[in-house]
Amino acid sequence: MAKNRYIGEYPVIGIRPIVDGRRGPMQLREGLEDQVMAMAQAAKKLYEENLYYSNGEHVKVVIADTSIGRVPESAACAEKFKREGVAITLSVTPCWCYGSETMDMDPMTIKGVWGFNGTERPGAVYLASVLATHAQKGLPAFGIYGREVQERDAVTEITDDVKEKLLRFGRAAVAAATMRGKSYLQIGSMCMGIDRKSVV
Prior knowledge:
- There is one protein chain.
- The protein is an alpha/beta fold.
- The protein is globular, with a radius of gyration of 19 Å.
- Helix content is 38%, strand content 14%.
- The protein contains 5 helices and 5 strands; from the N terminus they run βαβαβαβαβα.
């Protein structure tokens, strides 16, 4: 294999498990914790097995320490991701959640949101709502949603159309984050870093 000439650390993908933060007699949050974490693990496995850096190594993927249902958990996730060198985030959820409390607000990360199309919980409603909130705040985000309705317990069975969208987002995001802030000769309007204005 050719010598790796990339300078710096490769971008890490961070998975954000988003959950309905409401607790109480209905056990909403408690009943969703395992489901959303299974979803996050499935996304992590998909990325680790199929995405590579330019040096041929598998991408590094990390998951938030807890599910994210409120602002403090979102902030804790942001702190962890900063330490881990996360440049790309994928928020995953099977249910309705409070978008502005759970979304990734870092303007420098590349963002994707996967709303699970399940039979019992409105992951699609969260997806539509949080994408609108991203747009309001001027934060681009890639929305991912399945064509077919799945059983609520099928969160680890990623359908082919969702796999394609997840991988398309992942590949593009890794490429963009890898190139961000780097210098490449003979790409664009300047060659060798020489600006036209400096040529006499």
